[in-house]
Amino acid sequence: MQRLMPLLQLQPWRRFYLAMVLLCFIWLMVEPTLDFSMVQTPVKTVLITKPISLLMIMMLQLKSLAMWTIQNSKASLRSVIEKYSRTSLPQFPSNNVTSKFGTVKVSKVASLFESLDVVCDPVEVIETEFPMSMESVGQMFGFLLYVSEYPGKASISILSIPKVHDRAQIFVSCSLMDDRGSPRYVGTIERWSNRALAIPNIKCSSNTSLFILVENMGRVNYGPYIYDRKGILSDVILDGSILHSWKMYPISFGQLNNLLKDDSIVQVTSTRTGLWSEEPRFYEGRLYIDPLDKIEDTFISFRGWNKGVAFINNFNIGRFWPSFGPQCTLYVPAPILRHGENLVVILELHSPKTDLTIEFVENPDFTCGSKSRHV
Ligand SMILES: *[C@@H]1O[C@H](CO)[C@@H](O)[C@H](O)[C@H]1NC(C)=O
Ligand SMILES: *[C@@H]1O[C@H](CO)[C@@H](O)[C@H](O)[C@H]1NC(C)=O
User: Fold this and answer.
1) What is the CA(178)–ligand 2 centre distance, in A?
2) What is the best residue among 91, 96, 332 to mutate for testing ligand 1's pocket, by most ligand atoms within 8 Å of CB?
3) Domains of the chain
4) What is the DSSP string of 128-151?
5) Model-level pTM?
6) I want to staple 328 with a disulfide (CB 3.0 to 4.6 A). Which of 256, 322, 348, 362 is the partner?
C-alpha cells in the first residue's frame, strides 16, 4: 500500500491517463476468456457493463480534474504570465487574514435621474434621430441612458426594442417641467428574453418622456460574440411606429465624491425607507476603521440588495446581482481601505435592502440566488 501512495499523489490527468492504460491492459487480458465463455455470457451484459464502468471512471476523474484545475488555476495562470512577461513576478502573498468590519448604515441617497448632471457631463450628451450603439458614442463600458418622448394618448402603449445589448430598464415620466415626477419604472427588456413591454398611460398634459437605461454586462470576445456591440442596436418601436429624436447620456462614475456633495442628496429618514418605488439610486455609507486596528482584506455582502455596482473610496469593486446568484459577496482588497472613514457608494438599479445596511463579512459567500433563475 505504501508503494501505491505516490500514484495517488499524481496530478489527476496523469492518474486518468494511467487508469486508461491499466484498463486497456486488463481488457486485453480478460477478452480471450470472455470470448471463450461468450456462449454462456449474454453478450448484452458485456456490452453494457463495459461502457458503464468506463464512464464511471471517467466521470470520477473528470470531477477531480475539475477540482484540481480550480485549485491550481491561479498557479497555472501565473506560470503562463511568467513565461511570456519579461520581468519576474513578485511572490504570491501568504494566505492573508480577512476582517469582518461589520455593518455600515446608509446615510445618504441620490436618485440617478436627479444626479444626471453629475454622472454625465452635459457636453457629452449626444442628440440623434435614431438610437446609436454605445461604441459609436464612445461609451465602451457601463451604462448609457437613452431618452425620447411620445404623445402618450393611448391607455396602454406597447414598447419593443428588437435588439438591445444587454439589459434595458424602462422608465416614463411627464416631459413638461410642471407635472414632472420622478421617472416611473415600467419594466426591463433583456437581450435573452426579448419581450415587448406594456407601458401604462401616466396621463401627462404634455408628452411622455421615455428613459431607457441600458447596461453593458460584459463581453465574451469569442467566436460569434467577437463583435458584440452594446446598447440599443435597432429601432425602438412604440405602438407600431418608430421613435425619433433621441438624447443619449453616457454615465460615468468618476465624480462620485461630487455627487455626494451635491444638493440633490436626500438625507435618509427611516420612515421613508421601504416605501420607495423601484428606481436606480446611489446609496452612500461610511465604513470607519479604527486607527488602532489592522487593515485587512474583507468581503462586502449584498444579501438583500438587488443588482448594481459598488464603489469603495472611488474604487470600482464590481457588480453584484445576488437575486441571480450564486455569488453574494465581492472581495475588497485591503490596500483600497484606509484608517478612519471609507466611502462606500452603491449604485442599486432596482430597490435597496429594506433596512438600508451594508455588511462587511469575513468570508466569501456563494449561496445566493434562487434555483429557478431567470436571466
Ligand atoms: C499579506 O501577506 C504578505 C506576506 O506575508 C505581507 O507582506 C502583506 O503585508 C500581507 N498583507 C496584508 C494586507 O496584511
Ligand atoms: C411630442 O413628441 C413628438 C414626437 O413623438 C414631437 O414631434 C413633438 O414635438 C412633441 N411635442 C412637444 C410639445 O414637445
Assistant:
1) 16
2) 96
3) 2-84 (no CATH), 102-110+254-361 (2.60.120.260), 121-250 (2.60.120.260)
4) ESS--BTGGGT--SSEEEEEEEE-
5) 0.73
6) 322
